[in-house]
Write a structure and sequence with these properties.
By secondary structure, the protein is an alpha/beta fold. The protein is built from 13 helices and eleven strands. Helix 3 links the parallel strand 1 and strand 2. Helix 5 packs parallel to helix 13 and helix 8 crosses helix 13.
């Protein structure tokens, strides 16, 4: 009797295992068997687009199938995201974007869908960083001194924002809120004007793109104080992080892949593993670092933690900016 029961139990377990194998679509284990489209939420030429194209080139070479990049920057990237949320969850339509397009956008504008309910983050290619820059004529030499000087001179200093409801606008507001500093915002028509105003001495502070500002590091009119990522950059190891002065302050831009909810776990894992392999290649990591980007390849747990940090930052920053709910 006992042998019969054991036999029945083994038979049942085998049946369950067989069902699990059969319930996984064949295309999941064979993926990819045809070209894959990567929709990008930004225009060609920026760091997010560059990372997407680096990934497409690597994935094409690795899997032997073409990964095509399609830029859809309209409406802040909503057009690209719409293409992906409406696609079949089969791994052949991917989204490449930065965290602001997914986590910030719903806080400041009406969305035709809830990204959280329609998309699954896979992994990042890199974390984009921003640098705190000030005009050199200020009587300070580091971030701590700047914050103390600004606190002693409320509303007498200003900062450039390259647009509104983006990182250059919201990150400084969050920093100033957490440190009890009052600084006046000066809107700029994009980053080139913001940097021009900083160089000309028209603004005191700018939180801008790392690669752009590092290229200006020796300019006699500006001083770089800190980087917004959680760790120092290999390309500028002497530049401290903001969190070394303001503990816990990390404001960076997650750039990576998302897929429609329901995409088989096997495909998600395969894509995540390929990107982890990519960012470990010396040529790839060097290219990312040259752009002021920390190489990614995050695990599922690391992606979740990064999302939680970015969501908290954006929510707090939007409140600090007084942006009304959409």
């Amino acid at each position: 009797m006992r042998n019969t029961m054991n036999l029945n139990r083994r038979t049942a377990l085998a049946a369950v295992a067989a069902f699990a194998v059969l319930s996984t679509p064949a295309y999941a284990t064979d993926w990819p068997t045809k070209p894959v489209t990567i929709y990008v939420t930004t225009a060609a030429g920026g760091n997010t687009d560059i990372m997407a194209r680096m990934a497409a080139e690597f994935l094409t070479a690795k899997f032997g199938k073409t990964f095509v990049v399609e830029n859809r920057p309209s409406a802040g990237g909503i057009q690209a995201t719409t293409q992906v949320v409406g696609a079949a969850p089969d791994g052949y339509t991917l989204l490449f974007t930065h965290s602001a397009a997914i986590l910030l956008a719903p806080l400041v504008q009406k969305m035709p869908f809830d990204p959280d309910k329609r998309l699954t983050p896979v992994t990042n290619v890199g974390t984009g960083s921003q640098v705190v820059a000030v005009k050199r004529s200020l009587p300070i030499s580091n971030l701590s001194e700047f914050l103390a000087y600004a606190k002693a001179n409320p509303k007498k200093l200003n900062f450039a924002a390259a647009g509104t409801n983006n990182i250059s606008h919201l990150a400084p507001l969050l920093l100033f809120k957490r440190t009890g500093v009052e600084v006046v915002m000066v809107p700029s028509r994009g980053e080139p004007q913001a940097i021009s105003d900083l160089v000309a001495g028209n603004v005191d502070f700018y939180f801008g793109n790392t690669s752009v500002l590092l290229a200006q590091r020796e300019h006699p009119a500006i001083r770089l104080l800190a980087v917004g990522t959680g760790q120092r950059l290999a390309t500028a190891p002497d530049l401290p992080t903001v969190s070394e002065t303001v503990p816990g302050f990390v404001f960076a831009s997650w750039n990576g892949f998302l897929v429609p909810n329901g995409t088989p776990n096997e495909i998600v894992a395969k894509l995540r593993g390929a990107i982890a392999e990519m960012v470990k290649e010396p040529k790839m990591s060097a290219r990312l670092l040259s752009l002021g980007i920390l190489p990614g390849g995050q695990s599922a747990e690391q992606v979740a933690a990064a999302y939680q940090n970015d969501r908290r930052n954006f929510g707090e920053a939007v409140k600090a900016a007084g942006v009304p709910a959409p």
